Amino acid sequence: QVRLVESGGGLVQPGGSLRLSCAASGFICSNFLMRWYRQAPGKERELVATISSAGGATTYEDSVQGRFTISRDNPKNTVYLQMDSLKPEDTAVYYCNARFNIISDLWGQGTQVTVSS
What we know:
Strand content: over 45%
Shape: globular
Structural class: mainly beta
Mean pLDDT: 96
Radius of gyration: 13 Å
Low-confidence stretches: none
Number of helices: 0
């Protein structure tokens, strides 16, 4: 079965850290562009970070640059999002995405991240 399963979300205080995991099954995630998105209440879903297939080049949305790190563990077929120096505005549901081609994406179910004191 082809799917993505996110985990690692939770409640954290401002300035804290969380690591999100995205476990892929039914396909090899290192063969595809993998992305993390987030959606806050009342807002559109936004792209947070990407990691390419070949070479593993990464990109970040401006507001998370220097605080978030996307990475991939090929033997575990898992993509991670390390989030440091978290802010209340990082509160959102975080989604993992696999870009198979220009017309085909696979989404996970999402994991809630809440940053609050």
